[in-house]
Design a protein that fits this description.
Blueprint: E1 2-6, H1 16-30, E2 34-40, E3 52-55, E4 57-60, E5 63-69, H2 74-82, E6 87-90, H3 95-106, E7 111-114, H4 130-145, E8 150-153, H5 156-164, E9 171-173, H6 190-195, E10 202-207, H7 216-229, E11 233-238, H8 244-253, E12 262-264, H9 270-279, E13 282-285, H10 294-301, E14 306-309, E15 324-327, H11 331-343, H12 345-361, H13 364-384, H14 396-399
Parallel strand pairs: 1-2, 1-6, 2-3, 6-7, 7-8, 8-9, 10-11, 10-13, 11-12, 13-14, 14-15
Antiparallel strand pairs: 4-5
Helix pairs in contact: 1-13, 7-11, 10-12
Length: 401
């Protein structure tokens, strides 16, 4: 198959969406398919990856690391036509997702959409009328999804939620898998050597973005209590984002030492990130707005038990009391479970072994085969029904009615 992917974020930007796209691209290519990426451009980024087509872009006002594509590109529209694609896959309902949707209708191709983000739960970025913004986000995503031929959700929880929004398009649950073949024969001391962390330190790890929805204020406050009960504990935060300065100030205000008690590393290339997982002891996660939480499975692929706040996208990933703990949004319970796993060697070994089992079940190869099957079925169903439906363009006003 020849697959066109349309996304509002891609490398060198780092996020769960980007990880999902790159992981599926690699696995689908291994299965013999061709994947073509349509994405924003980024300043100073030199393209080395084949089959990636970039749009002229501008920095996002609230996050300069994030680029907003300018979806006026007749040349790229002709490129889509010339590629003779079999199916289009959008990873956002907004700028380039909608541009790709228009291409699907213009060139008579089936359209798949992955519901990566619970858009209505990000209205805290809107300074006013947040209830209205939430309603508009739901209506917009619902109308976009209902003009797609298949909607993919990464967890069953998200599937049930989007059904409650009134989405009638077929929905399938396909999580992003983890390339477990890369988690072999790794360097277990990479993090400690590069950030001068003592060998005896017990590393609590977070990987993600430094943004409000990741709930890092909670994590830092909880870690201050963890540190009192487990003095050798060190919190390592592998992330960058707009809240970096604020979170570092909060760390100091809590009486914790930067680069000693709490280490902010910034972004790390994926190959080195895998080494970081192997050099940690426990994965700690307080986000309350995940659609999947892929980093949880990545951590498990290195044998790390997880302590996470019970939330959307997390419950399908962590088996409570088996490979980690899911706790309410309450610092006392979060702290208790972290300290328990740092101090109970037998429980830790049991959870670590089960974490590896869970990661194998969620391998990227297995998930790509599921996606391949769905692509084939969508293409067949689309062409079987080709004469039975009228294809409409995706004007913005039709999506928010």
């Amino acid at each position: 198959m020849r697959i066109g992917v349309f996304t509002d974020s891609y490398k060198p930007y780092t996020s769960g969406v980007v990880t999902s796209i790159t992981t599926f691209k690699e696995e689908l290519t291994r299965l013999g398919h061709e994947v073509f990426i349509f994405a924003p451009s980024y300043p100073q980024h030199q393209e080395e990856e084949p089959d990636v087509y970039r749009f002229l872009s501008v920095p996002a006002p609230t996050n300069p690391e994030y680029s907003l594509a300018v979806p006026i590109a007749p040349r790229l529209s002709q490129t889509v036509k010339n590629l003779e694609l079999d199916i289009l896959h959008a990873h956002s309902p907004f700028i380039l997702g909608r541009w790709g949707a228009n291409c699907a209708r213009r060139f008579n191709l089936p359209l798949v959409f992955t519901y990566h983000t619970l858009y209505d739960q990000y209205v805290h970025y809107v300074p006013i009328a947040q209830d209205l913004a939430r309603d508009l986000a739901i209506k917009y995503s619902r109308n976009f999804c209902n003009q797609c031929d298949l909607v993919i959700t990464p967890t069953r929880e998200v599937e049930e939620l989007v059904k409650s929004y009134g989405i009638k398009a077929p929905i399938r649950v396909i999580p992003t898998g983890v390339p477990v073949h890369k988690f072999k024969n790794r360097n277990p001391n990479w993090l400690r050597k590069n950030w001068d962390i003592p060998a005896e330190a017990q590393v609590c790890l977070f990987v993600g973005r430094l943004t409000k929805e990741k709930n890092l204020e909670f994590l830092l406050q909880a870690f201050r209590l963890i540190k009192q009960r487990s003095p050798s504990a060190v919190l390592v935060i592998i992330a960058s984002g707009p809240l970096e300065a604020e979170l570092k100030k909060m760390t100091v205000d809590l009486g914790l030492k930067l680069d000693t008690d709490v280490v902010f590393t910034g972004q790390i290339p994926y190959e080195n990130l895998i080494d970081v997982y192997f050099d940690a002891d426990l994965f700690t996660f307080a986000s309350v707005t995940e659609t999947q939480g892929l980093v949880l499975i990545e951590a498990m692929a290195a044998g790390l038990p997880v302590v996470a706040v019970r939330a959307f996208g997390v419950e399908d990933m962590v088996d409570d009391g088996v490979n980690g703990y899911l706790v309410p949004l309450e610092k006392g319970e979060f702290v208790r479970r972290v300290v328990e796993l740092l101090s109970d060697d037998e429980r830790y070994r049991q959870f670590s072994a089960q974490a590896l089992v869970k990661a194998e079940q969620m391998s990227s190869a297995a998930m790509a085969r599921k996606l391949e099957t769905e692509y084939r079925e969508v293409i067949k169903r689309y062409h079987d029904q080709e004469g039975e439906k009228t294809h409409l363009p995706f004007p913005l006003n039709s999506l928010v009615k």
